[in-house]
Structure prediction request, 59 residues.
Amino acid sequence: MTQALSTEEQSKDRYFQQLAKVAEEMVDEHGKDFAAGALVLAARWVAENRLGQPENRPN
Prediction:
C-alpha cells in the first residue's frame, strides 16, 4: 500500500529535485569536485546561519 505524501513532504521533495538539478548543472559545467565543494560550503553556511549575510572582507 502506497501512502500519499504530506504537504511538507511534497515541499521537501521539490527542494531535493531542485538541488539535484543544480548539482547536475554544476557537474556538467565545472566537474564533480566543484559541485561537491559548493554543496558542502552551502551546507556549512546553513549550519553557521550565514546565509544572506554580507562577508566582512578587508579592503
Remarks:
- The mean pLDDT is 91.
